[in-house]
Amino acid sequence: MSDRYANFAHSGAGRLLVKRLGLPDPPRLRRHSAGDPVLAGPALIGGSGRLVEPIHKVIEGLPKAEGGDRNAALIFDATAVVDTAGLRALYDFFHPVIRSLTPSGRVVVLGSPPELCANAREATAQRALEGFVRSVGKEVGRGSTAQLLYVAPGAEDAIESTLRFLLSGRSAYVSGQVVHIGPASVDVPEDWEQPLVGKTAIVTGAARGIGAAIAEVLTRDGAHVVCLDVPAAGEDLSRVANELKGTALQLDLTVEDAPRRLADFIATRHVHADVFVHNAGITRDKTLGRMDEQQWQSVLDVNLSSQERINDVLLAENLLGGNGRIVSVSSVSGIAGNRGQTNYATSKAGVIGLVKANAAAVAARGLTLNGVAPGFIETKMTAAMPMFVREAGRRMNSMSQGGLPVDVAETIAWLANPASGGVSGNVIRVCGQSLLGA
């Protein structure tokens, strides 16, 4: 469903009215298209910490748009900030240049994880970076974003895939996020445009909407995609798989033998999978007092328990290849809660718990486990919402608009990248920096 308000706001008369009345002004977001450079213009780098050299090395190797005298990116290494007095360096760097950032510009601050700092004063100063970045994300406007990367000592050479994602149009609807990067073996792809060549990816709930977009983007990045969904969605599932030259697998993940059937399929057809995306999810919205037992149980089974059961068999039988990736789809509802969604919010908060509780054990096997938490994404489901609820969802974020399924898919593709080995245990919100929740 098209966003009629945004279309009007982009028109000549609409721009005048929006400005005069102080109405929400949805910017045109810079999203990735084939052949686009990572950087839309020059990048200004500041700071004096341990990441300055690695940052320069990455930036020098990135494709950049030519021309323009305004900065498309402002990048600051804050790892040298060891006490609260040192936070003045943020003001000194950003104050003179922040207002000249191009539309759809990028702000990235890199720091040290507070829990790994040498003392309490350094940890305090590093934690302060989160408030700074989230506020900048709400100030820059015009489709620009701001992010914080906490880079652990020893992970200096593991930042490239994350910088490439956050500086590019692929991260159009991701802002105000804190990403933790740890030491890891980094498998740099031969071609950054197709990092998944030779890989097999499995996407659940792939017949439509966000799942179909995930399958499409992973295919674009070179993967052979197994599109999985329930038998009732078989026609749509076959269409998606055929269009992508992938494989369709009809399977209800809640049936008792589903993990066994899936494991046998992977072992027989592909030996192992390289990327597994838990996207399947349902809603059965009712206030708690009006919700029946089946509405509660079905949502928990599909959205959460099935992920646990599948992960158990994937790990127990070594069905993920070396440097494998698991990505679980949560929701902003799992962070902020939502009226009429106690079942859904419980399941999606549980997905966040699953990621946090299991990431270390998964990392010990050379794998990564991350989550994404979409906010208001334009799908058939959100199009069916009451008008005022739908409009509130669209406007209550820093972008003043809903996201697209491809925004979730691009984020998952970054987490699936072989070079993202240092990114594990993260839950990334794809919400345009929603005003709800954290």
Q: Could you describe the 3D structure shown?
A:
This protein has about 450 residues and is α/β, with parallel strands linked by helices. About 40% of the residues lie in helices and about 15% in strands. The protein is built from 15 helices and twelve strands. α10 links the parallel β9 and β10. α7 packs across α15. The mean pLDDT is about 95.
Cα(first) to Cα(last) distance is: 28 Å
CATH architecture annotation name of the largest domain: 3-Layer(aba) Sandwich
Overall number of domains? 2
Mean of residue pLDDT?
Answer: 95
Helix proportion range: 25-40%
CATH topology of the largest domain: Rossmann fold
Structural category is: alpha/beta
Give the helices and strands as they follow along the chain: HHEHEHEHEHEEHEHEHEHEHHEHHHE
Give the overall shape, derived from the CA principal axes. Answer: globular
Strand content: 15-25%
Total strand segments = 12
GO molecular function: 3-oxoacyl-[acyl-carrier-protein] reductase (NADPH) activity
Family: Belongs to the short-chain dehydrogenases/reductases (SDR) family.
Domain Ketoreductase: 199-375
Protein name: 3-oxoacyl-ACP reductase
